Amino acid sequence: MSHHLFILSPSDTPVYSLTHHSTKPVATAPSPLAANLPTWSTSAFAGTLTALSGASGATQHTSSGPVRIGGGQDRHVIQMIANASLDVIEDIMRKENAMYLRSVDKFNEWTVSAFVTPGNVKFILLHEGKNDDGIRAFFMEVWEAFVKTQLNPFYSGQGVIRSSVFDGRVRTSAKKHL
Questions:
Q1: pTM above 0.70?
Q2: Domain 2-26+83-177 maps to which CATH number in 3.40.190.10, 3.40.50.300, 3.30.450.70, 3.60.110.10?
Q3: What are 67-96's pLDDT values in tens digits?
Q4: Domain layout of the chain by residue ranges
Q5: CA–CA separation, 115 vs 93, rounded Å?
């Protein structure tokens, strides 16, 4: 199971991103789009649907043999899902006065959870399983590391976070909670 974290500045520019592959088992249901595609289909549309469904290891059978689909497209699909959820996050922020917004959106098997800081920095996590307590604890630890990074006099406020200490803390927290 994989998790994708995006931290966006108040102007929605990417500040940090992380892909974490968890070793914890989770029951996954087959993707509805990928399940409806015939295995013999060779059309480009079938490949697009398979890639958009989030099936990263899908194989398309052609006359020249099996071809893997989705390898390079997965990162773009994940970014598209995260960006598409920004409007939903903004709507929920207007209605609720909470920092942890839980599950705000869903695209096939991907669930989007969000956390918004008082400074309007958005933490977006795409995940496949349900783990509300773990995700909340993960967001709190990432926020703590983010605040410590912001307090660093050598960090330029809105720039991309390139700190190996910050990255290590986020990865450790992901291993612990996700």
A1: yes
A2: 3.30.450.70
A3: 444 444 578 888 889 899 999 999 998 898
A4: 2-26+83-177, 32-74
A5: 10
